[in-house]
Amino acid sequence: MISVADLRAAFQKQGMSESDVKPGDAIFFNTGWSALWGKNNDKFNSGEPGIGLEIAKWVIDKDLCMTGGDTWGVDVVPFPDKLAFACHSELQTKHGIYNHENLVFDGLIADKKYQFVYVFAPVPITGATGSPGGPIAIT
Q1: Domain parsing of the chain, residue ranges
Q2: What is the pTM assigned to this prediction?
Q3: C-alpha span between 104 and 35 (Å, rounded)
Q4: Per-residue confidence (pLDDT) for residue 84, from 0 to 100
Q5: Distance between CA 17 and CA 19 in Å, rounded?
Q6: Contact by Cβ (8 Å): 52, 1
Q7: Burial profile 55-78: b = 16 or more Cβ within 10 angstroms, e = fewer
Q8: Phi/psi class of residue 31: alpha, beta or left (left: φ > 0; alpha: ψ in -120 to 50)?
Q9: Is residue 80 predicted with pLDDT exceeding 90?
Q10: Band of the pLDDT at 1, cuts 50, 70, 90?
Q11: Model pLDDT for residues 38-51, shown as the tens digit of each residue
Q12: Contacts 24+ apart (CB under 8 A), 6-14
């Protein structure tokens, strides 16, 4: 489970600080889990590293608009106390904070681009809870 301490360590490694994160920003988590997709789907689908309620509270306190990651749910799976997708409920349902899953950050990481404009145009599907689309990072 990714902790706030892990988040702060990642900021430091990237030459950033928490003060760089402003209300309305998005935050994305690269765990390396996406490297399993198409190579070891059984492991990829068996669970995943991800965020817990400590990070969810941090996101809410920072007034961010979105979380995302290279995993299929962004929440850690299995979640402690046998909860199912507690961060989805806390962030999306209770606070209207979007979530984007199965992202690939390889090019951004190779270029050491840790801050960028994120653009995503979802397909408008009536009654849907998600949508395909092509995410774009503008650096």
Answers
A1: 4-105
A2: 0.91
A3: 9
A4: 87
A5: 5
A6: yes
A7: bbebbeeeebebbbbbbbbbbbbe
A8: alpha
A9: no
A10: very high
A11: 999 999 999 999 99
A12: 7/55, 7/58, 14/112, 14/114
